[in-house]
Write a structure and sequence with these properties.
This protein is mainly alpha-helical and 187 residues long. It folds into 2 domains: 34 residues; 148 residues, Orthogonal Bundle (Lysozyme). The protein contains 10 helices and no strands. The longest helix is centred in the first third of the chain and has 23 residues. The N and C termini lie far apart (54 Å).
């Protein structure tokens, strides 16, 4: 065999293997491995209680912590939904849950309840605009209000490049992508 024939065979084999890998990675079974839906019962219970799409909650958890209940960010955000302790205590006060320790805030049942309530409050504040609420979840409601008021950001997903915080732009992109996957896989 000539070198040319061997190269053509190798190229053909590479194309076949690549096509197989692409096909496998698009199957629901593979995607469910990559986009798990852990804590489903807790998520759906709280999503129903607070009127939030459970797929959005799952997308935020996947983006924030990859479903690691012991996650702590460098800035101090805690648990699955990466809630800052001060924010968690404020939410707990709104929900009449009493004073919570950091350990309690990290417990999945409490963390998901706090995060879902907070997301619901953002959705209400921003008239159900999911992309705006997601940006506020990450970048802060006050910042997002200012961006919208000052016309720094239109509030539209396709204009996310206008968001002044790179982390918030990336967060919105990741949550939106995960949200679409969760809706397709689990709805």
């Amino acid at each position: 065999m000539t070198v040319k024939t061997n190269l053509l065979r190798l190229l053909l084999l590479t194309v076949i293997i690549t096509a197989c890998l692409v096909a496998i990675t698009r199957t629901p079974r593979f995607l469910k491995f990559y986009y798990p839906y852990h804590y489903r019962q807790i998520i759906e219970l709280n999503a129903k209680e607070f009127g939030v799409d459970p797929m959005l909650v799952a997308a935020i958890i996947r983006t924030e912590s990859h479903f690691r209940e012991d996650a702590v960010s460098p800035k101090g955000a805690l648990g699955l939904m990466q809630i800052m302790p001060e924010t968690a205590r404020w939410i707990a006060e709104q929900l009449n849950l009493g004073l919570l320790t950091e350990e309690q805030i990290m417990a999945p049942e409490i963390n998901i309840k706090l995060g879902t309530w907070y997301l619901a409050s953002l959705l209400k504040e921003f008239n159900g605009r999911v992309d705006v609420a997601v940006a506020a979840y990450n970048g802060g409601r006050g910042n997002v209000k200012n961006w919208l008021h000052n016309k720094t950001w239109s509030g539209n997903y396709h204009d996310r490049h206008q968001i002044p915080f790179p982390e918030t732009r990336q967060f919105l992109y990741k949550v939106r992508s995960a949200y679409e996957k969760y809706r397709r896989l689990y709805s």
